[in-house]
């Protein structure tokens, strides 16, 4: 009966190891998800700025959000932009039409 607690300790150590492995695997995925969100936020801001301020305003707002303006076009009342944040690209469309 002296070994009674050893299995509990082993189970706890295995649980800690599995939890650590899952968290270590999730960190790159969560970082990539954050980059996608930052790229989309930069694209949204650039598109909204471009409606009134044109391409220069879009580039300025993309840069203020840490991104680079890759493409810009006016389509009637709409502005469509594509930005790059690190290795991620995102597009957005904005308009001032009702």
Please give a structural write-up:
This protein has 98 residues and is an alpha+beta fold. The protein contains one helix and three strands, in the order H-E-E-E. It has one helix spanning 6-64, and strands spanning 68-75, 78-85, 88-95. Strands 1-2-3 form a three-stranded antiparallel sheet, covered by helices on one side. Strand 1 and strand 2 (78-85) form a beta hairpin. It is rod-shaped. The protein starts with 5 loop residues before the first helix and ends with a strand.
Please render the helix and strand layout as text.
Blueprint: H1 6-64, E1 68-75, E2 78-85, E3 88-95
Antiparallel strand pairs: 1-2, 2-3
Name the average pLDDT: 89
Q: Which strands sit side by side, in order, in the main sheet?
A: 1-2-3
Report strand %. Answer: 15-25%
Number of strands: 3
- In this structure, how is the largest beta sheet organized? 3 strands, antiparallel
Unreliable sequence segments: none
Gyration radius (Cα, Å) is 24 Å
- Choose one word for the global shape: rod-shaped
- Total helical elements: 1
SSE pattern: HEEE
Helicity, as a percent range: 55-70%
Q: Structural class of the helix and strand makeup?
A: alpha+beta
Distance between the termini: 79 Å
Care to give the gist of this entry?
Helices cover 60% and strands 24% of the residues.
